[in-house]
Structures are given as C-alpha cells and as structure tokens.
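Supplementary Methods S3. Input chains for the assembly prediction are listed below.
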Amino acid sequence: MTATGTGTTVDAAWAIDWLRRSAAVVAEHRVALSELDRAIGDGDHGENLDRGFTAILAKLDEEAPPTPGAAFKMAAMTLISKVGGAAGPLYGTAFLRAGTAVGDAAALDSALLVAALTAARDGVVARGKAESGDKTMIDAWTPAVDAAAAADRSAPAAVLAAAAEAAEAGAVATDPLIARKGRASYLGERSMGHRDPGAASSALILRAAADAAAAAAPAGASGTGA
Amino acid sequence: MTATGTGTTVDAAWAIDWLRRSAAVVAEHRVALSELDRAIGDGDHGENLDRGFTAILAKLDEEAPPTPGAAFKMAAMTLISKVGGAAGPLYGTAFLRAGTAVGDAAALDSALLVAALTAARDGVVARGKAESGDKTMIDAWTPAVDAAAAADRSAPAAVLAAAAEAAEAGAVATDPLIARKGRASYLGERSMGHRDPGAASSALILRAAADAAAAAAPAGASGTGA
Amino acid sequence: MKKLINDPKAVVEESVEGFGLAHADLVTVHPDPLFVSRKDAKSGKVGLLSGGGSGHEPLHAGYVGFGMLDAAVPGAVFTSPTPEAIIPATAAANSGAGVVHIVKNYTGDVLNFETAAEMAQADGIEVRTVLVNDDVAVEDSLYTAGRRGVGGTVLVEKIAGAAAERGDGLDAVAAIGRRVNDNVRTMGVALSACTVPHAGVPSFELADDEIEIGIGIHGEPGRHRIAMENADGITDRLLEPILADLKPASGDKVLLFVNGMGGTPSSELYIVYRHAVKVLEAANLVVERSLVGNYITSLEMQGCSISVLRLDDEMTALWDAPVHTPALRWGM
Amino acid sequence: MKKLINDPKAVVEESVEGFGLAHADLVTVHPDPLFVSRKDAKSGKVGLLSGGGSGHEPLHAGYVGFGMLDAAVPGAVFTSPTPEAIIPATAAANSGAGVVHIVKNYTGDVLNFETAAEMAQADGIEVRTVLVNDDVAVEDSLYTAGRRGVGGTVLVEKIAGAAAERGDGLDAVAAIGRRVNDNVRTMGVALSACTVPHAGVPSFELADDEIEIGIGIHGEPGRHRIAMENADGITDRLLEPILADLKPASGDKVLLFVNGMGGTPSSELYIVYRHAVKVLEAANLVVERSLVGNYITSLEMQGCSISVLRLDDEMTALWDAPVHTPALRWGM
Ligand SMILES: Nc1ncnc2c1ncn2[C@@H]1O[C@H](COP(=O)(O)OP(=O)(O)O)[C@@H](O)[C@H]1O
Ligand SMILES: Nc1ncnc2c1ncn2[C@@H]1O[C@H](COP(=O)(O)OP(=O)(O)O)[C@@H](O)[C@H]1O
Ligand SMILES: [Mg+2]
Ligand SMILES: [Mg+2]
Ligand SMILES: [Mg+2]
Ligand SMILES: [Mg+2]
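Predicted structure tokens for the full assembly:
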C-alpha cells in the first residue's frame, strides 16, 4: 500500500504506513534495544516491542483500519495484549489516547496531530507517573510534543519531523540521567551513562511517523522537515 | 625422630619415618594427584590421601608404634576410617595385610619385607579384583613386588629402591592403558593418555619407603639401590 | 548459551505444557492465552491469582493448588503477562466470592494487572490487589518505582492462600496478604548472572571475584558490586538491612526463608541458613518456621535471597495449614 | 570458583549442620563421625540406611524421615564415607529388625559399605545390601567397575522405605529394593561441569557448543562429547539407550523421573519432561507416575538425567504411600 496525503493532512494510509514502518525499525533495532535494556533493566525491551509490532502487522494484513483513529486503537489494543512489561501498557495507552483525540476523522491536519501527540504523552504520564528527567520514554515524548507544537503547521510532515528530531535529542539526553522510574531506577546511580531503552524506541517510532508522512506528501508539499 | 637400622633390617623407626615421608610427599603432590584424578576420575585422590596421612601424622604424634607391624596396622585403620573413596579401603587393606605379614617382629629383613609387600599387593587384588593392565594402583604394585622379589636381598634399602623404581615405571606405563576398574573405567577409551592417580600415589609412597630405608642404613651399608 | 530448550521463543509455552502434563492431577493449562488454573477449587471460596514474568519457577504456576493459588499467569521470561491472559485467568479463579490479585511491585506488573483488574471488575468480578514490595535493596523508594516484590511473594501466596481456603472473605484475604507483606523483608545476592533465552547472553557481567549485592529476580544488576566474600560474611550483609528495616523486637517469632536463585546447590543454601539462624538468635529472635530451597528463582542464576517474616499466631497457623501444590506440599 | 561457602574443607559439616537446624523436627545430626538419623523412627521396623559422597543433595540426608531412610551418611564431596561413620549410623538405624544398606555401585562406596556391613554384623546387626546400578551410560559393564548407581537410587529409597514402614521384614525390604533397581534405567547429560569446593576448578572443560552425554553424578566426564542439540534431541538421545536396555512391553506402566543436576532451572526440566512423555507414549507406555526436579544432583552442574522405572501394582502403591522427609513429602 502506498501512503497518500494532500500535503496538509495525513490519512489512514499514513497511519498504516507509520505502523508498518514502526514494525520495521523495531525489528531492525530489536537486539540493540534489548541491549540497552540489558544494561539498566532486564534486557527484553526490543523483544517486547517486536512481539507487539509483529502482531500489529498480522492484524493489518487481515484488515486495513478505515481511519487513523481506528489504526491507533487497533495498535493500542494489540500492544496492550501482546507486549506486557512496562512498555506494553504505556505504549498502548499512548496509542489509545491518540486514537481518542482524533476520533473518527478521516484526515488529520497539523493541529489534530499535535493534539494527538499531546494526548499520547499525557496518557503515558497518567499511567506511569514519570516526570521529565526520570529517564523514561517521557524524556523523548515531551520534547517531541513541545517541538511539534512549536513547528511550522503548514504540513504534518514538518510537524512530525520536528517531533522526531526532538525525540532523538531527548533520547540521547537520557544518557547522563539517574533513573527514577521503571526497572532502571533500582540501579540508582549505576543507571548513569546508559540510554533509556524506552526513550530510544520512542524516538525510532516517532521518526517512523515522520518518514511515513514525508513519503505520503506530494513532492514539494512538505514543510521544513527532513 | 631419626630413622635407624642395621643395614640388613629395618625397624619401627623406619616404618614411622616411611609414614611421615609418605605424608610429606602426599601433601606435596596433593594437587597434582587430584589433577590426575580430575582427568579420568572425580578429582579427589590427592585430597583423600592427604586427609588420611594427615590423620596418621596426628596419631604418630600421640604415640609411636612399637613395631613395624603396629605402625602398619595403625596406618591401615586410619586410612580405612579417614580416606573413604576407593583408595581408602584399598590402601587400608594393603597396610593391614602388610602388618599381618610381619606380625610383631621388631626388625624386618629383606625376605620379610618382600613378603609384606606381596601381602599388601594381594590384599588390594582381593578387595578390588583388578588385574594387571586394568589401569589401577595394581599396575604400580605388581611390578614393585616383582622387582623387590628379584632384587639383591642383602639390604632392605636395595629391595625397596628396586620396588620404588619399578612402581614409578609401572605408573608411567598406565598412561596408554584403557581403565577397566574404578571410576576411570566409565570413560572407556577416553581414559587413554592419562596416568592412573592411584598408581602415581603408590609410586610416591613406595619411593618414600625406599628413601626412609636409605636414610636409616649406616653409610655404605646399602645395596645397589639409589 | 547452553540450555535444555528448543525454540527460545517457545520456552514458556513448552515448559508450562510439560508442567501441566506432570501435574495433571492438580492443574489445568490453558494454552492461548496462557494461564494455569487449579483443578479442584471448591466453589464459593475467594480466588487467588498471581502472575508475572516467567523465569522464577516454581513461582507462580508451581503454587497453584489446594491452600495456595487458584490461577497463575506466566508472562514471557522476565516480562509481565498482559491483560489478555490475566482477565480470563481472573474469571477462572472466580467462583463467586471475588479474586485477589497478588502482584509483585514492578511497573510492568502493576500496569498490566491494573488494566486487567479494571476490565474484570467491569465484567462483574470483584478484584482486590495485594502489592508485594519486600525488597530492602531498594533504598530510596521515594525516588524509584518503589521496592520490588521478591522472596516475600511466596510467603504471601501461602498464607493468603490458607486464609482463602479456610473461607475468609475477599477483604479479609487481601488484608492478611498485606499483613504478610508488611512484615516481611528480603535481600538477595548474585554470584553469577543468568541468561534470558531470547537474549542468549548473560544479563550482566561479573568478574570471577565479584558478587552483586541487592539484586532483584530479573537478572538485573544489584545495588552494589563487591569483592567475593565467604558465606557467613554475605549472610551478614543480607541480614543487616533486613533487620534494620524490619526492626523486630527482642523475642519476636520469625520465619526464616533462604531461597536459591536457581543455580545454587541446596548444600550452599543450608550453609547460609546455618549462619542466618545464629545471627537471628543473637538478635534474640525465635526462628519458629523455616523454608530453604529454590522457591523464587532467576533462571539458572547462582546466588540466594534471605527473607525474614515476623510471625503472629494467625500467620503461623496459616503457614502450617495443609497445602498441596506442585512445588509446596504438606499436611496432605 | 564462587560458592556460598566458608572453608572449602568444612563445606559438608557446615551444610549438614544447617540442614539439621532447618529440619530439627525430622532429623538429628551426629557431628563426629558425621551422620544423620531419623527422629521418629518406630521401634521394630527394618532400618534403611544410605550414604555416599556429598554433593548430590538432597540425596541422601534429604530423604531421612517417615517412609524413607532411617539414617544417611554423607561423605566428603564426591567421596564415599568411611566405615567409621557407616557403622554407628547402622547402629542408629537398627531397632532390632536389621538394616538395609542402599549402596550406589562405585568401587569406593562398595568397599567402604562392605567393610562397615561386616563390622556391623560382627556387632550383631543383620545387614542386607541393595546395590543400585541403573546407569545405562556404562555400556560394557563386564569391562568396567559395572554400571553406576544414579537417579534410580531415589526411587529405590522411596519404595523400599515404604515397604519398611508398612512392616516388611529385612529380606522383603531388600528384595523390593532390588526389584526397583532391576526395573529402572537412567541416562544423564551435562551442559556444564561442576566445581568441587576443594578443587576450585571445574571437573572438566566443555566448549560453549558441546555437551557430555552419559555422565555420572560425580562431575566425571561422560561417554561421548557431542555438539549441543535442542532439548527434544537430547531427550531422544537419553531415552533411546534406556528403552533399548529396559525393553518394556507395549502397555507397560512406568514412572518417569526427570532429574536436574543442580544448576538447571525447573522450567528446562519440564521441557525435557514434555518430550519424554511423548516418546514414551509413542512407545505405547503408560506414564503412571512422575517426578520432576532436583533430587540427585552434582553440585551446580547444568544438565539432567532421565530415569524410567517399570512399575507393578505393588511398586505403585509403595510409591504413593505417605512420605515425610525434608526433600520428599506427600500424604502427610
Ligand atoms: N513509570 C514509567 N513511565 C514512563 N515510562 C516508563 C515507566 N517505567 C518504565 N518506562 C519505560 O519502559 C521502558 C522499559 O520497557 P520494557 O523493558 O519493555 O519493560 P520492563 O521494564 O517491564 O521490562 C523503560 O526504558 C522506560 O522508558
Ligand atoms: N578395583 C580397584 N582395584 C585397585 N585399585 C583401584 C580400584 N578401583 C580404583 N582403584 C584405584 O583407586 C584410585 C582412585 O582413588 P580415589 O580417587 O581416592 O577414589 P575414588 O575413585 O572413589 O574417588 C584409582 O586411581 C585406582 O588406582
Ligand atoms: Mg525490560
Ligand atoms: Mg577419585
Ligand atoms: Mg521485562
Ligand atoms: Mg571420590
């Protein structure tokens, strides 16, 4: 399926492409993510997400969700049922809240996208109670939401590119932090000097969203994003 | 205590010196003997014998046996009670039979020594049912007994030196054999290329007997032995 | 990595299948979603359910049976199970009087059980949750995800299970479970790491003369890495924070639980137990009950944990009550 | 070498001391010479005694108690005990009806028990010896010290113990012990070696992709070294010589015993058990009873053994009879 878009909105095809690209990068980085988790957690983060996104691919092959919201909700339910661990409920909540935020809109403009990203982040905070600087996926999501909100809203691709870039920087910035939530917190100061696996996977997944939007946008229609 | 002897006989002091020298060489070769046993057995032979001879030293410190026979019997009972494993009862039987063979003679001449060594070997065969070539301590003892019987009988030191030399050669000759008795037999052909630990310890102990006799003999009184 | 496994991805399924075959008199294995339920549960009693990542065997499935759990939900290795499995397991454990979820305090377990409990309640099943967090290795619980649930979990499951079996109501069973948790403290040590099957490499590296003090049960590194010590010294190090935190009074009766992490022979556990008894008796505590063995493990990790539970007469009686599960059995 | 021990020379003494403290309701530890005796033995029953090198825990001391052994004699690690300890243990196990010695077939054990039996008989205690030699890994038993006693020992101790408990006479107890031995075959595999405390180095070296097939229980190498295989393949390799030697008839009832060598998690044992059941059922055998766990070990060795016992109704009834020991307990 080829992603399509008007340039000023993204649609169900984009959402599906996002999920497929997410599955691909998670599979590609499965070992690397687990390796990050092995350093400060229990070494299963890549495996967990890969199990979830593989199941999402299977669902997508069965039936294409008709709207972005339906795609997000399908992803949410699949991640909640298949991933387990901390990441399953947290990513699941993120997609669930995003789905609720966009309702059954067929096309999402930049404003709705920013709202969806914000709702996703807020959902993770509500479930996990982490604050910025606690060395969790929140440290990728909050800069991403902030960057998206501040980005040029003429094109979703630009909004998502800004979000992805900020998420990547946020993930890198978790390196020196002492973890205060999740398994890594048990290590105390020994968690310093390692990247948070959930922040790293969040950056990968948000980059997949931006890439899908860039692929969907008609040539020349994208904004400032990469 | 200094070992003494007339040159044509050995006495209780010699027997005690033999046991002390045996304890010393076993302690010195403890790790090496266990290492041999680790290759084709269960890695405890040095440890086992060391436990036994350490106990013999303690007994000797308490009370000096009045005759060679008494020394052999004390050694036998101590080895039987402290060593365990295969080596404990086998060495125990060897010393017991040697003790019985010499009775309460105060001095042992070459003929009585040969009889004692023969009785010791026969005791090991009776208990362990091993034949020559089965890769056991018998492969040190039988050549030792044969060499002792054939040696110049003018001096016990010569008899024991011949026995020790033959035991050493016998131990070396176990290297290519396939074990047919004891733990090493479970390895089948994989026991080839390793020295039998019990044969190696037998050579050490018989060499200690010869050394004690050489030390006991008045200068010039010893026979052809080293 | 050398393990007696086939496909690393099928380890849990195949192992639980074998477990079900070996204990068909006691348990039923439901393969998809995977959970284990008790065969002979009497109707009308409060149901007890626990679950969590696999790799801690015999926890939890080994404790399904008379006087302990009604259902267990094994997740992937070291990964909490999902609501998809917890919800039907809750339904299986329910015979009308509601279900107590015994949950070890890890973010993943808490979140997944929370979701499942909500959905089960929506289906009309009363659920109470007992959170186990007995690990004194986690010092600043304000600045972390809180203390972890470790060895104490076994004691909570046994004692709350006996309360359910004698007919206590839902809130009473949850209350006794919480009372056990409030009175138990645990600390663990690793001499070697374990290898998660799908990872294929040890979960941390430890030099030949190093040990990890204050480990959890997921192969994660501990709080401190120190030079190897002898068993008595290690036992002292484990008991010290336990007693400092539990603050038992002179004359208190305790249950002493020395638990193997999976790869340590029981002979070594008894060496630890021997010294632990001496330390507790020197502190004027009465060791009334004991448990020594592999009861909550980390795959083939070498090491142990010590748990001390301050007993009251009711807990002791419930501990002594008959139990018949694949991994814990007495009195019947 | 990292172990939870103090002095390598005191490992057995300290461990048995701790064991005695933990199970003071069931056993008495006699420190010098070291043996363990049962607390509640009824007078007039045939006594059951076993012993051997330490390092196989819970064997043998873990099986002292109601319905199993009356005394156990732990030697140094992997070294048979001496008559010095076997003789008083035999006296402790005797309450007038004589004593059965259960001896694993190793030269050292045989010689030391032989001496002790002779001396006990001289003291007026009737002794019968049941030699256990169930290890099919030893192929040419004519050219070796004969088959070794391994996993089957646990089954002999349980079933003969139940016979003694129900009041069978000395010869009858020995006869049932021998019948169990005649009908059981065992084969083991090691994934890693173990380290004897006083040696401090592993008892053999095994590459990362190699396993030893046909090991005994003393850390000795096995018959063949092969490339690592999956659990089902290894299970096939263990069962093949067992069935070839036992030659069960179609429809025979068997007990399937999957035993861990000490360092293998129970989850892996159940994966082996799962496939073993399938193989036995494909051979038209009925798996009537099972035992899965660490019951006769080699310190922290990784690996397992499989034992198959051809049951008759009497053996099954004696297997099911109540037993209450530190390591095996049911029916009471
Ligand atoms: N309370 C929390 N809030 C936000 N994110 C969290 C929280 N706890 C854990 N995480 C995220 O989850 C990631 C770990 O996920 P994963 O390894 O799949 O689960 P588990 O820790 O249960 O094994 C962490 O790297 C972190 O980013
Ligand atoms: N049947 C036997 N006859 C003679 N010697 C034997 C016999 N069985 C074993 N041995 C000797 O005993 C030695 C092993 O002794 P040791 O290691 O102390 O006992 P274990 O084999 O019980 O561990 C072998 O090297 C061999 O020389
Ligand atoms: Mg993780
Ligand atoms: Mg040996
Ligand atoms: Mg996890
Ligand atoms: Mg030995």
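The helical segments of chain D are 11-22, 83-93, 107-122, 152-165, 170-182, 231-246, 266-282, 313-320. Residues 9-183 of chain D form a domain with the Rossmann fold fold (CATH 3.40.50.10440).
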